[in-house]
Every structure is written in structure tokens, then in C-alpha cells.
Design a protein that fits this description.
mainly alpha, N-terminal domain of TfIIb, Cyclin A, domain 1, three-stranded antiparallel beta sheet, 12 helices, 6 strands, zinc ion binding
């Protein structure tokens, strides 16, 4: 059973925060697509669906409400921002129709053809992992910039789109792991990583941090906000102390969550943490072993220990 709120977003009536009273107010994060408890900050739901009307008026007047369809609006990402007609031919088309389609393809801008192809891939990949329209638009803009600068020239189109989506998610503040992006890209991780490096070098974007993933990972593991806060603190201090040099942000986040959960009443195994974060169980344990000797310095001062530091598992 679902109900519709004022913002045309749906989530189950039974959805509530397990750590707060049943009447605790929930907040919708439209950018990330999450439902967050206002009292404790826990992510209690994700992947909201926008069921609002998908049409809009293209009238020059701001007050225009006519939903009639008279063609697509100007697209600033295309070289020729006009309302041109695309000629498509199918089974049983005449030779004349085929000739017109061939002539249009020859006359159209090659850059625009690549842009259309890239936007199609962006939309398809985004739909598979439920990315918002804002992320799709940013990825399309990034793809256009890389296309104009010929930064990713010669690279696989799927790898180009996947890398743009990866960076766009990070820029929008709702990062996804590389494994999540590659799973829907249909190309090798090596190709995507090369493209990401080229984009970062070109656009001078900052690197992601372990803290970027904590809210989503801890929410999916049903960990309360104090454990999430402790895991975030552990990951940040570990990086400042240079205890996990060479480890990826995902591995650091997974190990920090594992350590914080083991010290709390909400214990999670390395396998459970690895399944949610996308890190291998052995990787979680190896990174945890790097943190274990300095555990006393990593936890926040106000953390309520259920298991003392000296009784934490060795791996």
C-alpha cells in the first residue's frame, strides 16, 4: 500500500525509522532519492519514484500551461539547437525513404551524432540504477565537454558514458561505487578507470572520500546514526594518520563500518559489510587489521562501547 504526498513521490505507508517513535517525521532527499529520519538522520528508504506529469509547456510565456506537444525544445548540448526532423526508416520502406535517411546522416554533424548516442546510453544506464534526472543532465553536460575537448577520443562509448556518470554522481553529492556503474555499463573496469582519470585530470575534480558513502552503506546495513557517525570519524582519522595508504575509499569505508559495528550492539560480519559496500570480505578484514592497532585513537570520545576495544576481533 502506498500513498502520494504533495511532492508526487511515493513510499510505503509502513516505512518508519526503527530507532525512533512510529510518528517520527521522515524527510525526502530528492537529490539522492532517499528517505531520511529527521530525528536521528538514518536513511530508512531509497529509490523514490517521481510519478508527476512528465510533460511541460514550451510556451514563451511563463504562465503557459498548455500541455500540447509541438516538438522538442532547444537542446543546448547539441551543436545545431533547432527543431529539426529526424528521418527514420523501417522494414518495407521505399528506396526514396532510405535515400532521404542516408542524406540526413551525411549532412548531420558527427559530433551531434555522438552526443545523441551518448545521451541514449546515459539514459539507459541511469534507469537501471535509478539515478535522478539531475545526475543525467550533469553527465550529459560532462560528456559534451569531453566530446568538444576530444579528451576521451578513441575510447569505447560505453566506457565514456560510464565514467561521466561516475563523476556526475560524485559532483551531485550522491556518489556510486565503480562496481555499481560498471555493472550496467557492459565494459571492462580497466577502460572505465582510464576514462575517469582523463576526466578528473581535465576537469580538476576532487577525489571521492570514504565519508561520501557512509550514509547509504550504514542505512542499507540497518546501523543507527551513532554507529554511522563513529564509522565516519574512524575513516577520517585513519586517513589523517596515514594508516590506510594505498587503500581505496570503499575499502576504508567498509573497514571503518566493520570496526564501529563490532564495538557496538549492532554487530555486522565482514561478509555482510562486504556484500553491501561491494568490497571483498578478505579486503574488509585486511584493511581492518591495519586499523586495529590504533583503534583507541580512531573512535570518537563520546562513543558508547558495547564491546571494549581490547575485545575487538583480531580480523
Amino acid at each position: 500500500i502506498v500513498f502520494q504526498n504533495a511532492n508526487s513521490l511515493l513510499f510505503p505507508m509502513s516505512l518508519s525509522c526503527p530507532d525512533c517513535p512510529p510518528n517520527a517525521h521522515l524527510i525526502e532527499d530528492h537529490r539522492a532519492g532517499d528517505v531520511i529520519c529527521r530525528e536521528c538522520g538514518r536513511v530508512v528508504g531509497d529509490r523514490l519514484v517521481d510519478v508527476g506529469t512528465e510533460w511541460r509547456s514550451f510556451s514563451n510565456e511563463r504562465s503557459g500551461t498548455d500541455p500540447s506537444r509541438v516538438g522538442a525544445p532547444e537542446n543546448p548540448l547539441m551543436g545545431a539547437s533547432d527543431l529539426s526532423t529526424s528521418i527514420a526508416v523501417g522494414f518495407g520502406s521505399s528506396d526514396g525513404d532510405q535515400s532521404l535517411a542516408n542524406a540526413q546522416r551525411r549532412s548531420s554533424n558527427n559530433s551531434d551524432r555522438q552526443m545523441i548516442q551518448g545521451m541514449t546510453h546515459i539514459r539507459e544506464m541511469s534507469d537501471r540504477i535509478h539515478l535522478t534526472r539531475a545526475i543525467q543532465d550533469r553527465a550529459a553536460l560532462l560528456f559534451r565537454q569531453m566530446l568538444d575537448g576530444k579528451t576521451l577520443r578513441g575510447k569505447n562509448i560505453a566506457a565514456q558514458v560510464a565514467s561521466c556518470l561516475y563523476v556526475a554522481c560524485r559532483q551531485e553529492g550522491v556518489p556510486r561505487t565503480l562496481k555499481e556503474i560498471i555493472a550496467v555499463a557492459g565494459c571492462s573496469s580497466r577502460e572505465v578507470k582510464k576514462c575517469i582519470k582523463l576526466i578528473i585530470r581535465s576537469s580538476e575534480n576532487g577525489l571521492i572520500t570514504s565519508e561520501d558513502f557512509m550514509s547509504r552503506f550504514c542505512g542499507n546495513l540497518d546501523l543507527p546514526h551513532p554507529v554511522q557517525r563513529a564509522a565516519t570519524h574512524i575513516a577520517r582519522v585513519a586517513k589523517e594518520l596515514d594508516l590506510v595508504a594505498g587503500r581505496s575509499p570503499i575499502s576504508i569505508a567498509a573497514a571503518a563500518i566493520y570496526m564501529a559495528s563490532q564495538a557496538s550492539a549492532y554487530k555486522k560480519t565482514a561478509k555482510e559489510v562486504g556484500e553491501i559496500t561491494g568490497a571483498a570480505e578478505v579486503t574488509v578484514k585486511q584493511t581492518f587489521r591495519l586499523l586495529r592497532p590504533d583503534a583507541a585513537r580512531l573512535f570518537p570520545d563520546n562513543f558508547a562501547f558495547e564491546t571494549p576495544i581490547d575485545q575487538l576481533p583480531a580480523s
